[in-house]
Amino acid sequence: MKVIEDILLKRTSVRRYERDKIEPEKLDLIYRAIANTPTSYNGQQYSVIAIEDQSKKELLYEIIGQKQIKTSAVFLVFCVDFNKVSVLAKAKKLDVPRIQDKMDGVMIGLIDAALAMQNAVTAAQSLGLGSCCIGYTRTANPARVAEILQLPEGVFVACGLSIGYPRETPDLKPKQPLSLLIHKEHYRTDDMTKELEEYDRAIHEYNSCRTGTKTDNDWCAHMLDYYREALKYDMEGYLKAQGFNLKIE
Question: I want to staple 100 with a disulfide (CB 3.0 to 4.6 A). Which of 10, 52, 69, 105 is the partner?
Answer without folding.
Answer: 105
